[in-house]
Amino acid sequence: MPAPRLAPVHFARECAVITALLLAACRAPHLPVGTPAPKITAEWLRGEPVDPATAQSVVVVDLFATWCGPCMDTIDELDALQRRYAGHGVRVVALAVRDGREPVERFVAERGRDHAYAIAFDATGNSFDAWRSNALPTSYVVGQDGVIVAVTHPRELDRQVATALLGRTRGTAQALEFHEAAQSAREAKDWSELEQIADERLHLEGASVPAWIAKVEAQRDPTASAAVARTAIAAMRDDAFSLAGLVHGLALRGRLCAVGLEAHAALERARCDVPSLHVRTARVLAAHAAGPEALPALEAALLDELREQPVELLAVVSPFALGLPWLSAEPPLAVQPDPQALHAFRVRVLEIASKDLPGARVDEPLLDALVEAKAGEPRVTEVGRRIVAREARNADALNSLAWWLLREGEPDPVALPTVHAAVDAMTAIPGWDTAMRLDTVALARFVAGDVDEAVRLQERAIAMLPSPRASYERALARYRGARDERAKR
Q1: Does 189 lie in the same domain as 147?
Q2: Which domain holds residue 463?
């Protein structure tokens, strides 16, 4: 499967790896599920202090740092999570660790002031030691009994919080054993073994969503796959949360559209006792798979329900919430629905949300949706130039924007004016020319047809690296090859 083409603008390419290496080098594994939650010994910069061990409500503790790109990419999602579940007593705490006071205070002043969750600063390192994390960001979900029920990435928090609120069974040894066995069968492409493992799990727990997904996946015949999927939908009955898990799993494996009508109808009938984003996005995916009439009807219902909640509208059409970066398909089993309809839906919802939210919060997802929806160049450029103007002094943000839109050298033509605007603004910043940024500008020059400049810039980037990097070398070979071909003509 090709690499995902969707990514948030500020997700720096190396940041996740660097973060993991910095912390994992000397850290023990994170606190496991079932551990009593430690106290948060920190300075509370925003919101009321909370002790997860004694709060008697579900508490989310997200360990982050302002220097961590992936952490900053999920900050708005924490705000949406807090707003979504505030009525159920959930408390969300963003705990800044391994950071300086000045950048954390600046973050609170610039981005945190409009957010609904609490922000604490671990000035002494005691909380970092107590909570233990070998990578950032790391999020802990603490149950009402003060015990950790999930350790996850912030983007998985909605599902985990809803699970805790609904009182669903925590991960068991049997569930872990099933997961490992099923994964081994997948890797071996032993579909008979996968189906047997799924059947054994379903015999023990008939409502097991992972087992139903595995059983569907094990089918190599389209008719058999659809039949098992229909049985699974019927088994979920009116359980919207389980149906949502099934829908996401089927969509991820390219099996949803064969049963789109059934999945959509089941989710429309089912109700969920918590306002789960996991369920709302499943409804979007099922409606998209159900046919051309279902998605507009769902869109009208969502806007009617959430028009006064622009933060939630933004969350519903997030590429990560919908699973868009990871959705794959198995063409022999089913024809997939037209993605343009889904991206056009995202554009319309984002434009509604943009009326009540600052551009800094909406423009990046809107730009993504516009490019994916094949919108006209003027509209894409309008939004793109707003981002460039806002980030005019931020070389990292401009670099990430340009790289993301370049799509590994295969950009959509409508995005090129924004790419060039971002590159021009970045190269005007003193000290911009790090190896990573030179690599980006070289690709931009190559796409623009300036092959000689691309070669020169890529050679500079490679010369700055402390050790060889295969991706940089491949890019240089590509540019030199194009230069040589041009010389022959």
Answers
A1: no
A2: 391-488
Q: Which residue shows structure tokens 């708005």?
A: 76
CA atoms of 1 and 351, how far apart (whole Å): 31
Q: Give the tokens for residue 364.
A: 């990046």
- Work out the number of other CB atoms within 10 angstroms of the CB of residue 435: 16
Q: Where are the alpha helices (H) located in 62-100, listed in sequence order?
A: 69-73, 75-85
- Give pLDDT tens digits for 288-315: 999 999 999 999 999 999 999 999 999 9
The one-character DSSP state at 32 is P
Q: Report how far Cα 111 is from the mean position of its chain's Cα atoms.
A: 20
Instruction: Enumerate residues 6+ apart whose C-beta is below 8 A from 157.
Output: 60, 62, 77, 78, 81, 139, 141
* 74-84: burial string, b at 16+ Cβ within 10 Å, e else: bbbbbbbbbbb
pLDDT in tens, 433-484: 999 999 999 999 999 999 999 999 999 999 999 998 999 999 999 999 999 9
Q: Do residues 295 and 395 both lie within one domain?
A: no
> In whole angstroms, what is the distance from residue 438 CA to residue 108 CA?
32
- Distance of alpha carbon 142 from alpha carbon 138, whole angstroms: 13
**Does 377 fall in a domain?**
no
53 φ/ψ angles, rounded to the nearest 5 degrees: -70, -25
The CA-CA-CA angle for residues 324, 1, 401, to 5°, reads: 50
